[in-house]
Amino acid sequence: MTPTTHALFPTPVMVVHKILDKLQVAQINTDISRMDFSSNAKSSALAHSNSAIGPLDPVLQKAFSPIKGKLVAFGQELFGEELNWTIKEAWVNILETGGHQAMHLHANSFISGVVYLTDSHPSANLIFQKPESHTGFVFSNFNARSELNPFTAARWQVPEIKAGDLILFPSFMMHGVASNEGEQRISLAFNAIPDKLDSWGYSIRFNPD
Ligand SMILES: [Fe+2]
């Protein structure tokens, strides 16, 4: 009898190609050109829009209306129930040639996402990293002989990202971007929270304000 290995407790990452069409992408790119940007602390070739812009901003409202349905669907996969989701914060990233984004995660958020407003060179596609021990030693058998599979791999890079694509992931996941070997890449990132979570009556409400 062939043994079965079960891949337990997977982490969902949703990729939606062409959530925005070319016209919508062009419109948002025009709208965001009025924003002010500041350099990232760890990469001078990466800039973020200065002020986080809430969901009521008409510019981003246009970008988020096609995304909301996917956000709710992804939230249902994460928490098993259709919940009310709010985009808590959103910002624009401009990644120039040679720029990178250090590995990080988004605390106090539940779903994070990125919408791409230009194509992404494969070198600058988003990378996710498996959590490692923060307080103890880490043992590994990663070497030239070892096989790469879903259990041994420590990183996964989104294979292809074009303008208009959406990526949704749990906010606890470590993610970053390696050095961009391509042209300028523009993306719109956001964090989303549900109005509440309920574990058999132990419910917690979240205030987006
Ligand atoms: Fe991020």
TrEMBL record:
Species this protein is from: Hirschia litorea
Biological classification of the source: Bacteria, Pseudomonadati, Pseudomonadota, Alphaproteobacteria, Hyphomonadales
Name of this protein: TIGR02466 family protein
SUPFAM superfamilies: Clavaminate synthase-like
InterPro entries, alphabetized: CHP02466 (IPR012668)
